[in-house]
Amino acid sequence: MLEFITSYVGSHWISRFLLFRVLGLTYAFAFLSAALQIKPLIGESGLTPAKQFLNRLSQRFSSIGEALWYHPTLFWFNDSDAALTSLAWIGFFLSLLVTFGLANIPILLALWALYLSINKVGQVWYGYGWESQLLETGFLAVFLAPPLNPMPFASFQPPTVAILLTWWLVIRIYLGAGLIKLRGDNCWTDLTALEYHFETQPIPNPLSTFFHHLPNTVLKAGTVLTHIVQVGVPWLILAPLEVRSVAGILLICFQVALMISGNLSFLNLVTIAPTIPALTDQAWSYVMPTVVRHQASVAAANAWTFPYHAWVYALVVAYLSVPVVKNLMSHHQAMNASFNQFSLVNTYGAFGSVTKQRNELVIQGTSDDEIDENTEWETYEFPGKPTDTERSLSFIAPYQPRIDWQLWFAAFQSPRQNPWLFTFIDKLLENDEHATSPLRDNPFEDESPEYTRVEYYQYHLNPPLSDQSWSREYKGTYIQPRSKDGFTRSRFKRSA
User: Is the pTM of this model over 0.70?
Assistant: First the structure.
């Protein structure tokens, strides 16, 4: 029976080689995002300091061992700015090793532990589905890796059961995303979702405008295709080789299309990684250079394997999959939830609801001592989110500017639901170097503003080749002007 399963699954020397490289690249962008933003976000003087978060959390635990088990992070031992940034940069350089083909169990375990540590103190900044998806994929990759030899084609054969676990992960990723759409916003079932998505997604890219202005019939067809790819195609990974390969190609092409149409952080990369073993070495050999095919054949000729640790992990995955499957079958399906503290098996989903209009928060400051109708307000620009209507859209993914993303969510919520935003604009009043570091443009580099405020706009994506990327309508004030000495009021006010 085992021989039949092994034969059915096929050879995966090349697919492992590719999976590790894509995974390494994903880790690299994830750690780079952390290294460049971790101090302004969760540093000692950050918007939501990790030190304060851990101090509050520590009251729940009686010992460091208990804390590590229920909330696993290395920052229990040291939560200083130096520790935060050092850990992120260590993760980045280890990621580069994997990207360039050097991967073994210790390296991959280290990457997983380091990113888990950041994730567990990341708070609101790390509440995205791709964070847990990276952790699950990264831990699963440990069981594909050679124990010690880090060379790209070490002779340790990828355990068949570990390949099967990548298939199970892919099915859950796509099925979660597909079912949440069918159960969620009506626009997915009436096929109008893509008429809104490209304009209202968190950070559009330069091609988003072309997609947004496609004919409605094309966009409806795209919505149908999305349902087919996410709900139907993943099951074909379990089919015989030829069908499985077609399914894998379709799923990878789907993620590439999403990368082209928007800035979705590293979601697409981390989804492509476990999809790669849907294709066997036989399929990948058609596009791989001769040297790669040769190295794979040499490794296969000298192969040895130790699958027992992977079988043990398969039992763990089976046990942890029970609540995940229940969630997928539930009419109250939750998106992007973890049912264990180590994020080993999670449930996924994206865009279950689609916003019909693009709301944007515009943060402004002024040097005027007093505020009146003649006050000149300067706008803070961010690397990804739209603000200046004339500025061209940017390709920024797989890097994720996390304040940009949180401002997108905040625009659909009240100020009270986003206390970090008050902290942020107060720090802008001081020209705090950490708070201003994530900005694209700080109009007050030379002197601090006297007041800051947050305005509320509705943005519209203009047709391709327009003079301006966006048009916008003023809707009201989100946070009233605040000064270093106090503020007038901070209630949310929208105009008609």
Answer: yes
